[in-house]
Amino acid sequence: MRDPLSVLTDAFTSFVFGKVETTRLPVRTSTGQAQAVYLPTAAPGLGDSGVIIGREVYSGKGYIYDPFQLYGQQLPAPHWLVLGESGNGKSALEKTYVLRQLRFRDRQVVVLDAQGEDGVGEWNLIAQELGITPIRLDPMVANDSGIRLNPLDPSITTTGQLALLRTIIEVAMGHGLDERSGFALKVAHAFVTEHKTDRQPILTDIVEQLRHPKAASAEAMNVDIDDVRAWGLDVALVLDRLVDGDLRGMFDGPTTVGIDLDAPLIVFDLSHIDRNSIAMPILMAIVGVWLEHTWIRPDRKKRIFLVEEAWHIINSPFVAQLFQRLLKFGRRLGLSFVAVVHHLSDVVDGAAAKEAAAILKMASTRTIYAQKADEARNTGRVLGLPRWAVEIIPTLTPGIAVWDVNGNVQVVKHLITEKERPLVYTDRAMTESSVVDPELEWETEQRAILIEQQMNGTSQSTVA
Fold first, then answer.
1. pLDDT digits over 65-117, tens only?
2. pTM of the predicted protein model
3. What is the pLDDT of residues 365-392, one digit of tens each?
């Protein structure tokens, strides 16, 4: 009980100076109790249905992403761009993403594997684990026992065949076909399509008609036969490279029988092709169009088309135009296109800047791993990233990336389970990704175990 003098003093002080604030004693509590008072805040996630990627760095909550679940509501398009310098985790993300997607019965994946070592592609281990034989395109063995894909396969429409032939020639020549060369090609293709009915037409037939056009074809357009032959000479020389040059054997015969287009994973191994040669964009154009007409079907399957070294597509105006059509067409039939690129400057400053911009616009999901400061600023400007995201991109450590899902920007730590680790980390990947934060290693392993348990528990209930 307070003494009378203190009560009198407080009353006088209040009368003269106004009410006096009381001093509260400090409160001792635990973080578990305080969290009810000081509520944490975090950006909203993308829902709880789909594929587990890892955890959001700032909040620690799980990060789940699936373009098929988000398409139409949170995503205007299911296509995805992955950017970043080597050694930061792009390869590990792609592989675990595909492995986790394949847990759903209505998923199917095609991979264009342009990297490799020891004579096999980077996806060889995963293909072996799933009991799948990669489709290895190799001009050194194609004439003997290799795989062939026929640009004139009857499963491809006549219009599609002609468009593909034009693209092959334009990529090889480095410029568009003029009207006369285009007319010569059209005449040769029309003649072969009409007269080769007892077997699959092949590129050799086109080359032969370009060298020796029929008089009837020229007369139909009131053109001299010698002119038609002259107009088609350069075209014949370009196609001859696929028939009798350094790319022979892969495309100059009927499509190999037995390619399983119903397998859950289809891997095209392009690792034996020089990545810096003109052959790579030609290969990607042929494979892309062939898949468009043979693989994509209205059967309610959700398909993923993942392309390594995708700058070979985006940086060529002629190949990019083919893939633009594929992306627009695929959206209606459940196709998610995943393009993996090291530097955005590889494509936005190239010859196909207009086509590149159109493809980038279709990619509503962008994942950016560590880049140098100048590259990060350029990436942020082109993709419209917020300033805070641009500033942290150069500081990101391996396995952590900025995710922009149609404007929902978060920083995500990718986690890998112990079962996935030996499949994801090839010898090269182990070398590139050897930098690990020791303080996060134990936590990462524990969270990976939790993710694996969650995947085992949710996959039964969420499989379509």
1. 999 989 877 888 899 999 988 889 999 999 999 999 999 989 999 999 988 76
2. 0.78
3. 999 999 999 999 999 998 999 999 999 9
Strands 62-65 and 120-121: unpaired
